[in-house]
Description:
The chain is mainly α. It is 72% helix and 6% strand. The chain contains 19 helices and six strands. It has helices spanning 4-21, 25-45, 48-81, 84-118, 125-154, 173-177, 180-211, 215-250, 252-258, 293-299, 309-335, 340-349, 353-357, 371-379, 385-414, 421-429, 433-447, 469-500, 504-517; strands spanning 159-162, 167-170, 271-278, 283-290, 452-454, 458-459. The strands form three sheets. It has a two-stranded antiparallel sheet with strand order 1-2. Strands 3-4 form a two-stranded antiparallel sheet. The longest helix is centred in the middle third of the chain and has 36 residues, at 215-250. The radius of gyration is 26 Å and the shape is globular. It starts with a helix and ends in a 5-residue tail after the last helix.
Amino acid sequence: xxxxxxxxLSRLQFALTALYHFLFVPLTLGLSFMLVIMESxxxxxxxxxxxxxxxxWGTIFGINFVLGVATGLTMEFQFGMxxxxxxxxxxxxxxxxLAIEGLMAFFLEATFVGLMFFGWDKLKPHxxxxxxxxxxxxxxxxxxxxxxxxxxxxxxxxxxxxxxTMRMEITDFMAVIFNPVAQAKFVxxxxxxxxxxxxxxxxxxxxYLLKGKHKGFAKRSMTVAAAFGLLSSLSVVVLGxxxxxxxxxxxxxxxxxxxxxxxxxxxxxxLTLFGLPNLDDRHTHYEIKVPYAxxxxxxRSLDKPVVGILELVAVAExxxxxxxxxxxALEKVKADxxxxxxxxxxxxxxxxxxxxxxxxRYVEDPRLATPDQVKLAAWSTVPxxxxxxxxxxxxxxxxxxxxxxxxxxxxxxxxxxxxxKWFLRLAVLAIPLPWIAIESGWILxxxxxxxxxxxxxxxTFLGASSLTTTHLWTTIVCFTLLYxxxxxxxxxxxxxxxxxxxxxxxEALEEDARTEGEPAVA
Length: 522
């Protein structure tokens, strides 16, 4: 039988490294395009202050970029080391976008990032702006290909199981690229990254204004952040709505779980603002709903119901029973590859094979499963409902707070009231909020896919490597210590850059010039 302790520890390790890596990604995504905007203003106006602004925020970008790359590399190795059967089973599809990300996006970033940092005095302004844009493009293309890979895990289109190789193989690469779930995740994720960067720029600028330092720099940076952040925060909400619509067709259980909707909601379905999900009686108590909202978001209509958890469990139970038939036919094909009757039977139920594999959690041979084990497997397709319910509301609540924050910032900047004290304090305090929302969204996406590594294809517990708990605890502890040290370095470097200020380089040059101009003393 499968050692579930190994599976759980492997999941814990990947969760820790992924969540940590994702602390750096959003800021990199957003700052890259903010640098393009700031440098574009410099190229158009040729005012030195905008060059200083671009270089200062470029320093913050550089610190974050380096640690993001370092922590991302370890995740690539985990697929082979901790999830070897997953890599074997779906590597032909999942590996392709990751390979393209490395060859296209990462190499693009690597080619131009050095020129961006060290080419200020060697490239003409227009040429340097092009370099900065290419770094931003590479950064966002990197996110695109990674989210295409992740989107395929959520909605495995363009691929099929090959009974001769016993692996998943690509049948339509264009379908993988233009997967609606992947596209919705990409635009939603990068918009959230833009909000994160805008909050950081806004917060640090507010800090300078509160201290009465670098006012010209801070006011200009704050104005860019206000406009960029307002557009981005509105985009997050609009594109989040598109993600909800994508769930209706492709991940009905995830949608039902994050709404704690136990039974099918008749049209027009309402959106639950507040409630207390109860796993014992499978009911959500004290619900407060917004009429029609869920129907509009998830079905784009007022006359279509939204399917509930209990009905989806019943569907899963039927699919598990057909999955047992698929498993039986596949075993016959393995024993006799020329058995055309078994191949024909497999073709009729091939899409349910993954559901049959869910039974391997309870019995070695799914064909020997009891009715009670089938019911257990069907209920295992329900993710953690209370966690999903509250994480989604926490994330959405912060999203709407960001709209309010940037709308206020935009109005104040328009009225040239940059130094409004209460708002400056609020902007500094808001700096952690986008990270909390973004990490919550990542938890929502990944916990909501459970118990699947690949939705409907491969259960998570079957994808893990044959490791021991000692191996896993050792690496978890080592990663935690290493990443903790890197976090201290990251925060320390950023605080040091903020403390030195945007004019530190000019001040150092002026000090050197004064020193050289003084007469030598015997």
